[in-house]
Specification:
alpha+beta, four-stranded mixed beta sheet, 4 strands, about 35% helix
Length: about 80
């Protein structure tokens, strides 16, 4: 499963969310793309300081914080055969 995290440098919440994704990725097949919002002017304007944002395709999964348990629940609830990204 392919996930994307909109993030920025020196962001404690971003680092925490990436750690949660890595933890879940030990038991589920995940790939994670990181997008630095400060390198994308449109994203910087869209999110401001409202990061991290974790998404599967166009579907936002979490903003700011997510637990490993909640992320697993969201990923397990996806329709069978559905693929993002």
């Amino acid at each position: 499963m392919h996930l994307t995290i909109d993030t920025r440098r020196h962001c404690r919440l971003c680092d925490e969310m990436k750690a949660v994704v890595r933890e879940v990725g030990r038991t589920l097949p995940l790939t994670l793309d990181e997008v630095d919002v400060d390198r994308e002017p449109a994203l910087a304007q869209r999110y401001g300081w409202d990061v991290p944002v974790l998404a599967a395709g166009e579907r936002e999964l979490a903003r700011h914080r997510v637990t490993a348990e909640r992320l697993r629940e969201m990923l397990d609830a996806r329709p069978a055969g559905h693929q993002d990204g």
